[in-house]
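ok so i was messing around last nite and threw this chain in just to see what happens. nothing serious, just curious
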Amino acid sequence: MRDAFIRALTEAALADPRIVLLTGDLGFGVLEHFEQRCPRQYVNAGVAEQNMTALAAGLALEGRVAFTYSIANFTTLRCLEQIRNDACYHEANVNIVSVGGGLSYGPLGPTHHATEDLAIMRALPGMVVFAPNDDGEVAAGLPALIDHPGPSYIRLDRASVMSPAVDDLPFALGRARRLREGDDVTLVACGGMAGEALAAAETLQRQGLSCRVLSMHTIRPLDTDALIEAAAETGGIVTIEEHSTIGGLGTACADALLDLGVAPHRFCKIALPSAFTTVVGSQAFLRRHYRIDAGAIAARVAALLGVTQQPRLTETVG
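result:
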């Protein structure tokens, strides 16, 4: 997803000299292509994310379209004051690009786990929050973010849906994409967790449950029409995210539905606990450990719908 973003940004920058990319001394193996083709539109601000963000805001106020780039916690938490006061307060076109969303950098431990970023970013005035599920959504969302006059947050996951079946679905910023049809419940996912949602839906299909799957790639502004439709047509909504249970996709969906006076028959948030991780490992390992992988999602949804899951068949020898 990261490589897809840089490819798309490079092509956009070649056509639009307003675009400038600032890195916090990170991503050289990935950003070299951009630097070589657009050397006058590339800045390495060093390990100084506060300066990087303030510089981006200044460039944006002079008519540039600025993108800051680093690992998720460094582009958001370390320079939160500059994001809020320099970029958001001035409605500057500063686009914060975070690589390693969620548990992507699993082996590096809690300092590199971005599990509160969605909550913090969506709380900032004027901020668009974008968490694509695959390379196609990354490339499709970029032009809209360049044209958006204010700040945005782009969360890039290591995992990706990578499903050719969904490549042809139309894309619009702020509008959910329906990845799978279903009538019994709707699974609403963001980022790479859409892949886990699709896998869970496949498992549940074999148990007779029909799941709609939505890629809610834009968490702010949220596609409330898709949520209202899902609540009316499927009766249940399950949100799925690689983020703290506080303040992320699930909270955004619950807030929106209650504000609109819509109460789905069933509602469930599948997310990480509000706690620092106590184990390290690959992203796949951590998803299993914290029970947000496809198997755990299928079990939670089956329980929510009152269906007893069939035990997984295992091969025996002898």
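not much to say yet. The first strand starts at residue 19 and ends at 23.
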